[in-house]
Specification:
With about 350 residues, the chain is mostly helical. About 70% of the residues lie in helices and about 0% in strands. InterPro entries: Spore_GerAB (IPR004761).
Length: about 350
């Protein structure tokens, strides 16, 4: 079988880069505003809580996949039969495809708002999708390599996030735990959109050498994401007043304005340029996942199905023409992501646990 060929497998440590690169994307450029709308100065606590919850989800996913070198497509068919399993698989494919559209179109919105206001949407969409096809044609190992470099190359930008500290007032974080459990829960639900991405593990599991030993690396990926988000949130809360933060759509980009370098006046241009390396692995992973599902469910060669998906994504992105539509897509993805993580994954976890116990008795 394809998943047993050693030349197609990746080292376990790479799952840390895959998960982290799939979680951190364009959302980090503006997520503090949305979380602080519910929890104000306690928003950093929400980030930590959400990170802990996603460690639990990682544990669940590994328990779901612990019966062998199967991915979630095979398990759906095994547990629910061909027809119901195909419904689950097609729904997963559409969810991943929606993620591709949201990530790509939102980042292009950033480019148009901050760098090239007159840039036609189809131009960067076409450029990204051509590069995506080139990467996916190389297989999952190539995608994993893109994730590796997509974390390392822009990693230096983390240090620029500390530039606003000298203008910050950390007393803005006080008093701690000043919001109700309901507000914390609403903030956690909103924060879920920024943490989604571990679902790719459901499809990538068979491509891991010694997949059980990759568990610690998966947790390291979520931990790295949590640390990055917490740092950005704390600095945002200290740098902005609550009113200023609510008026700042791209708060991280605005904070970059205080970065001073002798050879460049507007550092945010450099930040956005390097953020292309952050967003590209997001697009490659979600597109790879969607094409993987299509290949196994619809029995179409993956290289042909990728072309079909790319055409669909191109049309969908071009049809989104304003900020309101971009916000709607992000809201829709957040709602669906909430159901995927807080209902679907726990349901599949419980179902797989019961299935194993029943089959062992028979």
């Amino acid at each position: 079988m394809e998943q047993n060929r050693k030349d197609l497998l990746i080292s376990p440590f790479l799952i840390m880069f895959i998960i982290h690169s799939n979680q951190v994307g364009v959302g980090i450029l503006g997520f503090p505003r949305y979380i602080a709308a519910y929890t104000g100065n306690d928003a950093w606590i929400v980030v930590i809580i959400t990170g802990i919850i996603f460690h639990v989800f990682i544990w669940m996913v590994y328990r779901i996949l612990s019966d062998g070198s199967f991915d979630i497509i095979d398990l759906h068919n095994k547990w629910f039969g061909k027809w119901i399993g195909s419904v689950f698989n097609i729904a997963l494919m559409m969810y991943l495809l929606l993620g591709t559209i949201v990530i790509l179109r939102t980042f292009i919105e950033v480019i148009q708002a901050w760098m090239f206001p007159e840039l036609a949407t189809w131009i960067p969409v076409a450029m990204y999708l051509v590069l995506t096809y080139y990467v996916l044609a190389g297989g999952f190992r190539t995608v994993a390599g893109i994730c590796f470099f997509g974390v390392l190359i822009p990693m230096w930008l983390v240090f620029t996030a500390t530039a606003p500290i000298k203008f910050s007032t950390f007393s803005n974080l006080l008093p701690i735990m000043d919001h109700s459990l309901k507000e914390i829960a609403l903030g956690t639900r909103q924060m879920t959109l920024s943490f989604v991405g571990i679902d790719i593990l459901l499809l990538a599991y068979p491509f891991l050498k010694n997949p059980k030993s990759s568990r610690i690396w998966a947790h390291m990926g979520v931990l790295l994401t949590t640390l990055v988000y917490t740092m950005v949130m704390v600095i945002s809360l200290a740098f902005y007043s609550e009113g200023q933060l609510q008026q700042s759509i791209w708060s991280t980009l605005i904070a970059w304005k205080v970065v001073e370098l002798p050879f460049v006046e507007r550092f945010e241009y450099i930040g956005i340029t390097f953020w292309c390396f952050v967003v590209f692995p997001n697009i490659c992973l979600t597109m790879w996942g969607a094409s993987r599902v299509g290949k196994k469910v619809l029995h179409i060669k993956q290289k042909y199905f990728i072309f079909i998906l790319i055409t669909f994504v191109f049309i969908a992105c071009v049809m989104v023409v304003n900020r309101d539509q971009v916000d709607y897509l992000n809201t829709l993805t957040s709602i669906i992501g909430t159901y995927v993580y807080y209902f679907y994954i726990p349901f599949i976890f419980l179902y797989s646990t019961i299935w194993r116990r029943v089959t062992r008795r028979i």
